[in-house]
Structure formats: C-alpha cells, structure tokens
Write a structure and sequence with these properties.
mainly alpha, Four Helix Bundle (Hemerythrin (Met), subunit A), 71% helix
Length: 151
C-alpha cells in the first residue's frame, strides 16, 4: 500500500470514529455517578460547616471548599439524565415530569453556591456564614420537591 493510500485509510478511520455516536450509558451507572456527585456535595458542605463553626484550624481552606461547591453545582442539573429515574435512587419522578421547576431549583443552588463562594473569597467569615443560609435553603428546596423522603 502506498503512503498516500495509507494516509487516506487512516483519515477515513479517524473520521468514522469521530462521527460514531457515543455509547448509551446504563441507568445503573448514571445513578452511581449521581450518588457520587451528591456525596461530594455533602462532603463540601460538611467541611464548610465545620469551618464556619470554628471546629477546625483549616479556615483558610473555606474558599477552596466553596469553589468546589460551585463546580459541583454547575454539573448538578446534568446528573439526572432521561432513563435514570428507576432503580436504586431517591430521585422523584418530578425531576423529569417538571423539568422547568427542576431547572429553577438547580439554578437556585448554583446562585447560592456562587454567592457563598464570593463571600468566602472576601475573607469575611460573617458574610460567608450568612451566605451559607442560601445554600441550605437551596438544598432544602430541592430535597423537599425532588427527593424521596427517607423513612
């Protein structure tokens, strides 16, 4: 095979690969991923609370944790894809039945995380503590409307 033909074959293979549809993820994998992300959200919130209560000497890390919360908030709306509404999940059908309301809840979380991060970046612990109230309200809003209540 000539170099020119080999190059054409290689290009055709690359083009074929790049236009191949991605494999569909399975619902169990999506639920496992969602639970991991939400556990990360809980971990960041736990660290933030510990700092705000003065229970650790790691107060200098507050902005790192609030930035982590901002980053997680940015993906929080995408961790509930169609088809991941069954199986071992506490997600209520309302997420998929009322996408507009769910989007508003996600936006509320994102806005609260952004405000908390801005306050933490300022170094003002009182402002950070006050802004944390908005994060708590956003979590409560979503859990009350889109998460199965634990028995």
């Amino acid at each position: 095979m000539t170099l020119q033909k080999l190059t054409l074959v290689a290009c055709a293979a690359v083009i074929g690969i790049s236009f191949t549809a991605p494999a569909m993820a399975d619902a169990d994998g999506e639920i496992k991923y969602r639970k991991s992300v939400m556990k990360s959200v809980g971990g960041q919130i736990g660290a933030i609370i510990t700092i705000l209560k003065g229970q650790t000497g790691n107060a200098a890390n507050l902005a790192i944790h609030t930035q982590g919360l901002v980053n997680l908030s940015k993906i929080s709306g995408s961790i509930f894809p169609e088809g991941s509404d069954f199986g071992e999940t506490e997600a209520l059908p309302a997420i998929w039945e009322k996408p507009g309301q769910f989007s508003k809840a996600v936006k509320m979380f994102q806005d609260a995380a952004d405000k908390m991060n801005a306050a933490a970046m300022s170094g003002d612990m009182a402002a950070a503590g006050a802004a944390f109230g908005g994060v708590g309200k956003s979590c409560k809003n979503c859990h009350e409307n889109f998460r199965e209540k634990k028995q």
